Amino acid sequence: MKILNLYAGIGGNRKLWGNEHEITAVENVPEIAKIYQDFFPNDKVIIADAHQYLLDHYKEFDFIWSSPPCPTHSTMRNLKNNCDECEKKYPDMKLYEEIIFLSHFYKGKFVVENVISYYEPLIKPFICANHYFWSNFNIGKLKVIDRGIRTMSVEEKEKDRGIKFDETLPEIFRNKLLNNCVFPEVGLHVFNCAFRIRQEVLI
Questions:
Q1: HSE-CB of 40 using CA atoms within 13 angstroms
Q2: Number of domains into which the chain is organized
Q3: If residue 3 lies in a helix (H) or strand (E), which one and from where to where?
Q4: pLDDT 10s digits, 154-190
């Protein structure tokens, strides 16, 4: 398959997909894109605005995964919105733009991932492993054991996710990247759901 991995980050969602597919990753932060490329040298990595890239290239792919920025939708943002001294922000509606666009115009399989939001979702998602997923295929439940990730050291998080950074990277940067990435087993579960449905259609 030809796969598009948008807002790719360090590729936590992609880690267990294997190398038999042609994968294009889009990430707009060069330093993070380089880390992704080091982890997945066979993938094509593009430094660009993922939102615009989707609009321009969606027809070229069989499967699309998108993880738009989540901070403005998170429960933490709600706490900040309720704090008089905190800066107020609108939710970033690129999330729903992509869901609506893909639902109506894309012919392949797609999934859009985001955090559990502080508000009732405007479009009903699947809920799996503490994530929202909007897709045009069924995403079954996945039981993920609470391993106390937030209290782990950076080294423990790296071991837990099977991701090892260059130790010259600042610890605070490594920690942020690890906290933001989708657990590899969750990425594989969603990928397998899409792949099985695709196979059933082809038979």
A1: 27
A2: 1
A3: strand 2-6
A4: 999 898 888 888 888 999 999 889 888 899 999 999 9
Residue 172 inside a domain? The answer is no
pLDDT tens sequence across 55-97: 999 999 999 999 999 888 887 756 555 666 677 788 899 999 9
Residue 82, classed as helix, strand or coil, is coil
Given a cut of 50, is residue 201 above it in pLDDT?
A: no
> Alpha-carbon torsion 105, 22, 67, 149, what sign?
positive
Q: Is residue 15 part of a domain?
A: yes
CATH of the domain at 84: 3.40.50.150
Residue 78 Cα distances to 121, 130, 150, angstroms:
14, 17, 19
